[in-house]
């Protein structure tokens, strides 16, 4: 029987606090990304706070299943990254507890979140999707809030275009007004010019009352009786004061739910499977109907029976009649008419087949969208488990907590998941891929990664240890850290200053002899570098002796000596001789000419740097030795 132990409870607490925080962060990011898609439909509509609150509420409910896997990925990465960074994970393993045993408490929690995610998508999500789509369609259909700009034609009022040259924001007056109204057609359009005016909304917000001063009204008088007349009379009216009522619905009304309820996103799994059966039956009946019509009208040429042959001969047409010869005997006008009728019939059949093809594609697309939505509910829930087995092992391997490295890795993993998920869904929706292949491709790609990361983390692999790769890169580029010798709080044994001074003098003598013998400023023979063995054991001995002296003098309390010790450079004892320690690697590098040239130039750089380092070491040795001898430390 499974029981939570103290370690499980400890890790669950660490994970739970991070999960709550990262969940709200992921939810906020997803909502902002989703909001940008519809920002144009919301701006300028004069929507109330209640409507906007409903919009964000339903959007949050709709995006919650997508926030679950992201929050699990990020929180598991940070949790085990913190445990690794604080050496708590090392202590857990030292106690004989494997990584999978440390995971077991969180595995139970993640499985419960997975079940909750699936339940949410199957029960709560469909209603939230339908309400959100209904609200979104209603927002798109709402007339925009009346805000007429200056200097441009405004078409936000149905049936009218209004131009305002200038407006007074304090009084609400409009100046230089031009109105272009169109009721039924372009022939009966009206143009209204006014010196100034004011616009107000009626109490029921169904109309606009436009009051104009000092203007003219031009309107065509075209009607049904004058439809055949070439000359169209018009009416011109000059007015000092006039009121016009314009249709303008300023209220927010929810659209009908009938068209939205058929959307697959607003259905649970049982309803999707029920509707899929109905759609398949309907599609099959439509397909059989189209096939029968195509056979009978376009492609079907029945074999003539004996009775049909007798009937055809009675009418004067033999089954072996050559219709081309019959057409050739017709007159040019009759032949032209026959060809025209045949082309019209062929074009009509092509248009009919194109319409039926589009209709059939629409029916099949509807089936695929329902299949995609059904599979999506499963894959999105399973992604919670997959993301946990990616995030937790990576956190244990990288051992970096906080919001730095974990956020970067989470973003990279999510980008991979997003590309495969959306590309597969689009290809499946467009019938380029099989629906099952398109929707399961992201899961199929990430599952092996989760298994691989879990295996590597359970075996204490350093494959993804960024510190290891950073050190390798620093060595390859010749970068090195500065020496940092500080005053120790507790010193067990004081250094032997006189002996260290004599050893520093001896190191200087060895460096002098080494410099005369090796001539570091001259380029070595490339054949000797790449194809012969010859490590520099002398510089290794000098470096070991110097490091021993530095370690002994590091126990001093003299600040001047400590300062001088930090002037010593760290020496690379091998890079100035050959690229690699293995002979076969040097031979391969030498045979590949461009690579060999690069590593040869790199070796020359290290030789010059060693020459400068040895000069710095000699000067520092002299200063420390003279200070010890003079001050008799």
Tell me what the structure shows:
The chain is elongated. Helix content is 63%, strand content 9%. The model is unreliable at 224-228, 299-304 and 312-316 (pLDDT under 50). It is α+β, with helices and mostly antiparallel strands and 633 residues long. The chain contains 18 helices and 6 strands.
Q: Brief description of this entry?
A:
This protein is α+β, with helices and mostly antiparallel strands. 63% of the residues lie in helices and 9% in strands. Strands 1-2-3-4-5-6 form a six-stranded antiparallel β-sheet, with no helix packed on it.
N-end to C-end Cα span: 70 Å
Task: Spell out the helices and strands N to C.
Answer: HHHHHEEEEEEHHHHHHHHHHHHH
Number of helices: 18
Taken as a percent bin, the fraction of beta residues is 5-15%
Judged by helices, strands and strand pairing, the structural class is alpha+beta
Which residues form runs of ≥5 with pLDDT under 50?
224-228, 299-304, 312-316
Form type: elongated
The gyration radius over C-alpha positions equals 42 Å
């Amino acid at each position: 029987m499974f029981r939570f132990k103290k370690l499980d409870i400890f890790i669950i607490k660490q994970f739970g606090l991070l999960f709550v925080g990262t969940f709200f962060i992921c939810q906020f990011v997803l909502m902002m990304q989703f909001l940008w898609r519809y920002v144009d439909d919301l701006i300028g509509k004069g929507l109330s706070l209640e409507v906007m609150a409903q919009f964000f509420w339903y959007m949050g409910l709709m995006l919650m299943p997508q926030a679950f896997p992201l929050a699990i990925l990020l929180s598991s990465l940070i949790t085990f990254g913190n445990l690794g960074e604080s050496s708590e994970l090392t202590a857990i393993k030292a106690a004989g507890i494997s990584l999978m045993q440390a995971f077991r408490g969180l595995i139970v929690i993640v499985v419960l979140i997975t079940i909750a995610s699936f339940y949410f998508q199957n029960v709560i999500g469909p209603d939230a999707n339908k309400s959100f789509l209904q609200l979104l369609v209603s927002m798109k259909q709402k007339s925009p809030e009346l805000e007429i700009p200056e200097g441009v034609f405004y078409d936000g009022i149905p049936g009218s275009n209004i131009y305002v040259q200038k407006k007074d924001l304090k009084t609400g007056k409009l100046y230089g007004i031009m109105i272009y109204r169109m009721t039924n057609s372009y022939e009966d359009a009206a143009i209204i010019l006014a010196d100034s005016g004011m616009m107000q909304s009626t109490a029921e917000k169904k109309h606009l009352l436009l009051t104009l001063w000092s203007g003219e009204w031009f309107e065509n008088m075209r009607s049904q009786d004058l439809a055949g007349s070439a000359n169209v009379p018009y009416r011109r009216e000059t007015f000092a004061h006039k009121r016009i009522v314009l249709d303008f619905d300023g209220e927010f009304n929810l659209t009908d739910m009938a068209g939205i309820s058929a959307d697959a996103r607003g259905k649970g799994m049982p309803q999707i499977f029920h509707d899929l059966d109905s759609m398949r039956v309907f599609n099959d009946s439509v397909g059989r109907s189209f096939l029968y019509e195509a056979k009978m009208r376009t492609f079907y040429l029945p074999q003539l029976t004996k009775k049909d042959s007798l009937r055809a001969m009675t009418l004067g047409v033999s089954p072996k009649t050559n219709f081309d010869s019959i057409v050739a005997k017709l007159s040019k006008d009759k032949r032209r008419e026959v060809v025209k009728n045949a082309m019209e019939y062929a074009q009509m059949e092509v248009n009919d087949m194109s319409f039926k093809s589009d209709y059939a594609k629409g029916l099949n697309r509807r089936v695929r969208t329902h299949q995609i939505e059904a599979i999506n509910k499963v894959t999105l829930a399973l992604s919670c488990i997959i993301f946990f087995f990616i995030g937790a092992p990576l956190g244990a391997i990288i051992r970096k907590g906080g919001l730095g490295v974990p956020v970067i890795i989470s973003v990279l993993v999510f980008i991979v998941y997003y590309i495969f998920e959306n590309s597969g869904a689009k290809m499946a929706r467009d019938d380029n891929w099989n629906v099952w292949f398109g929707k399961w491709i992201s899961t199929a790609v990430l599952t092996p990664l989760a298994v691989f990361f879990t295996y590597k983390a359970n075996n204490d692999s350093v494959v993804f240890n960024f510190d290891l790769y950073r050190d390798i890169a620093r060595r390859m580029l010749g970068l090195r850290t500065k020496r940092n010798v500080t005053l120790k709080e507790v010193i067990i044994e004081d250094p032997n200053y006189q002996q260290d001074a004599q050893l520093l003098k001896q190191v200087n003598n060895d460096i002098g002899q080494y410099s005369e013998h090796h001539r570091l400023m001259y380029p070595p023979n490339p054949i000797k570098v790449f194809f012969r063995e010859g490590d520099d054991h002398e510089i290794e001995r000098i470096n070991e002796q110097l490091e021993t002296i530095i370690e002994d003098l590091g126990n001093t309390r003299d600040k001047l000596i400590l300062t001088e010790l930090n002037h010593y450079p760290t020496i690379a004892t091998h890079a100035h001789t050959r690229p690699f320690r293995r002979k076969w690697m040097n031979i391969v590098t030498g045979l590949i000419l461009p690579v060999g040239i690069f590593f040869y130039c790199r070796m020359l750089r290290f030789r010059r740097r060693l020459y400068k380092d040895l000069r710095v070491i000699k000067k520092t040795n002299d200063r420390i030795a003279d200070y010890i001898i003079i001050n008799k430390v």
